[in-house]
Structure formats: structure tokens, C-alpha cells
Write a structure and sequence with these properties.
This is Metallo-beta-lactamase domain-containing protein. InterPro entries: Metallo-B-lactamas (IPR001279), NDM-1-like (IPR050855), RibonucZ/Hydroxyglut_hydro (IPR036866). This protein is globular. It has seven helices and 13 strands. Helix 5 runs antiparallel to helix 6. The protein has 276 residues and is an alpha/beta fold. The chain has a seven-stranded mixed beta sheet with strand order 1-2-3-4-5-6-7. Strands 8-9-10-11-12-13 form a six-stranded mixed beta sheet.
Length: 276
């Protein structure tokens, strides 16, 4: 299957494209965001990496044809979980938060929580492909990100917000001028996942408090999340507030138990995939 068949996109306002993997049918299917800038273009998250995302972007002309203007495309992972990081190795420039640099550089399929089933891939990307073969390929990040860093696209800037909880290196990218938040898996319109390896409920509560404060300060009007559909400030406030109110002692105890089971399952899955 070609890259042009594997992906599909929608053109949104202000030079933003929403890209998805057509034949990955799962709640884990991540949104891929391409943002055009006057000097730098950025991809936020890169999907599974089963077909070439750069090839698709170029074939569809999403970056235009001004080669003199264009800097190498920068791919930023909001975190290193497999559904977001699997395609990062396809890019010359790659950025992730400093807490997850080693996981990506080592191809750590435990921290990337690589867990893919054949049933989720409804059309094989290549002959004889099986989910058991799938691994997140190691790549050395060229951009090591941390809180407060600014990604300068020329006519717009994206500020890095370190908001751990879902993972230890989870970030959002905040377009302050346009009041847009690219939220990764820190928040989306669904149940927040805090039971994976390196998830931490306490960190997640603190991150959600920051999100509530951002809404209260009217710094966000639109959220472009890592999964599902976009939503506005009121929904962001409600989602973050609900997580905070639900993160009591019972939730923390049950989450700890589920994390232990999930960790054992991921260890076993990772071990089997490398034949140990």
C-alpha cells in the first residue's frame, strides 16, 4: 500500500492540516497535525509509521512549492507512546521532551507502550504484515524540549508546556497568539489514561490544574487533541476539572493496581516480539 493510500487529511484554518491513518481503526489512532509557518513547518505526532508520512505530505503538496523558504520539516512527539511516535524516525528533525529522549533513542517498546493488534489494522500496509512484527524504531532526537521552549515558525510560535501525568514527558504546544492548544494525550474528549508505565496521578492532577488556570485566564479557545475531535475552552475546563475531582484515594489505589497488571502485560508482549 502506498503512503498516499494509507493517510488522509483535512485542511483547517490558518495553515493547519489534520492527518489520520485511514486503515488504523482503533481508539488509539492518533491525530497528526501539520502546521505551516512562514519559516518553519511542524508536524505534531507522527502516527504508527507503517507508511511514509513525509512521502504523503510531499505527494499532496501540503508544504507548497517554495523550496527556498522551506526549512527541514520538524516532527515533534507530544510523548513517545507508539501511536504518536512510531513515525518519528522518518524525519530529519525530531523533538521530544527531555524526560523521554532515552526511550525514543533506545527504541524502548515498554515505555512507548507498544501494543498493536492485527484487528486494528483493517488493510495490511505491506504483504505479509502482522502486528506482532511492529516495533517503534529508535531515533535520536535533534531537539530536546523542556518547559518554556518556543518553537519559532516565523509567523507563529508554539510554546512547550510540560504537563506530565499520562506519561513523564507529555507536553502540549500552545499557540498563544491564536489561543490554540495542541494537547497530545494530556487531554482529549474521552477518559484520561493514567494507569500506564510512567503515568502518575499526582502529576496529572497538577497538569489539569494548569489547564483550568489557562482557561480561566482566557488563554485557550480551541484544543487540537491527540485523539478524537477538536473542542473548545468550556469543554477543556470541564474535562480537566472532572479529572481533578475524581482523583481521590480510591482512584489512586485502583490505578496503581491496573498499572502493575498493564506493566506485566507490556513486558511479556515486548519480550515475545523480540523472541526472548
Amino acid at each position: 500500500m502506498s503512503a498516499t493510500d494509507w493517510y488522509a487529511h483535512k485542511s483547517l484554518e490558518n495553515g493547519v492540516f489534520w492527518i489520520q491513518e485511514r486503515f488504523y481503526v482503533s481508539g488509539n489512532r492518533a491525530n497528526i497535525w501539520l502546521i505551516r509557518g512562514s519559516h518553519q513547518d511542524v508536524v505534531i505526532d507522527a502516527g504508527l509509521g507503517l507508511r511514509s508520512l513525509p512521502e504523503y505530505i510531499n505527494a499532496k503538496g501540503l508544504l507548497g512549492d517554495d523550496m527556498k523558504r522551506r526549512n527541514p520539516l520538524l516532527a515533534i512527539g507530544t510523548h513517545v507512546h507508539f501511536d504518536h511516535s512510531g513515525g518519528l524516525h522518518q524525519f530529519q528533525q525530531v523533538g521530544v521532551h527531555k524526560a523521554e529522549v532515552d526511550a525514543l533513542a533506545n527504541g524502548d517498546n515498554f515505555e512507548t507502550v507498544t501494543w498493536l493488534s492485527d484487528s486494528e489494522i483493517v488493510e495490511d500496509p505491506s504483504p505479509g504484515w502482522t502486528a506482532r512484527q511492529y516495533r517503534v524504531k529508535a531515533v535520536q532526537p535533534t531537539h530536546i524540549l523542556q518547559e518554556g521552549d518556543v518553537i519559532n515558525l516565523g509567523d507563529r510560535q508554539l510554546t512547550v508546556l510540560h504537563l506530565p501525568g499520562h506519561s513523564r514527558g507529555s507536553i502540549c504546544l500552545h499557540d498563544r497568539d491564536n489561543k490554540v492548544l495542541f494537547s497530545g494525550d494530556v487531554v482529549y474528549d474521552g477518559s484520561m489514561i493514567d494507569w500506564l508505565p510512567y503515568s502518575t496521578v499526582g502529576d496529572y492532577v497538577r497538569s489539569c490544574r494548569r489547564l483550568v488556570e489557562m482557561v480561566d485566564r482566557e488563554e485557550v479557545e480551541l484544543v487540537m487533541p491527540g485523539h478524537y475531535n477538536t473542542f473548545g475552552a468550556k469543554r477543556l475546563h470541564r474535562l480537566a476539572s472532572s479529572y481533578i475531582s475524581g482523583a481521590g484515594t480510591c482512584h489512586r489505589v485502583s490505578t496503581c493496581a491496573v498499572r502493575s497488571v498493564a506493566g506485566l502485560a507490556l513486558r511479556a508482549s515486548s519480550c515475545c516480539s523480540v523472541g526472548c
